Amino acid sequence: MDSIYINIFIKMAAAFIILIIYIHLSGKGSLAPISALDQVGNIVLGAIIGGPLYNPSITVYLLVSAAGAWAGLLLLVRYVTFKRSEAKNLVDGRPIRLIEDGKILSENFASAKISIRDFIMLLHQRGYTNLNDIENVWYEYNGQLTVVKKGEQEMAIALIENSNINTENLESLNFTEQWLKSEIAKQHSKLDDIFLAEWHENKLWIYSYQKEKES
What we know:
Blueprint: H1 2-26, H2 36-50, H3 60-83, H4 85-92, E1 96-100, E2 103-104, H5 107-112, H6 116-125, E3 134-139, E4 145-149, E5 157-161, E6 164-165, H7 167-172, H8 177-186, E7 194-200, E8 203-208
Antiparallel strand pairs: 1-2, 1-3, 3-4, 5-6, 5-7, 7-8
Helix pairs in contact: 1-3, 2-3, 3-4
């Protein structure tokens, strides 16, 4: 009987260490998941760790191997999606516009896989009671709505993320990469030095990497 408790204690200690390492490496985002993949990934990781604790047939080595492999895969996906916007779009999807300039884009509801009833419910939960007051709505990849009311300031649009040009957003503004590069040159900057660049109020706002990248 004592060996069973010792086995459980060792597994719990190993699982605790794995969780601490995972949280440390993945950051606070692992505690407050933003995307669907983060949420599902954390649930699966919890199941991998919790399930074997009281199963004596599963060894500590197997527990550590399975949990470590899954946590490593999640960390790898996080790293790739952070570095490459294309990978982020592939894994998490893109925001889908449901209302544009006050007009409902009914064809986009099927792409977003959201019913009009659920859409209205989400709006009501956000405190919006009348569609006539709304200018633009995006259905984000985490299942939430981004809403801009009529008369409110338009949202900034990201054109560069981690030195990568967001061609989709660029095309939505009818801009070209040549135009973007010329605007970057006007501000005496380089694409490789740009962490984020946004188009807002008819101006390109550039935010460069901190000096650590230069060293």
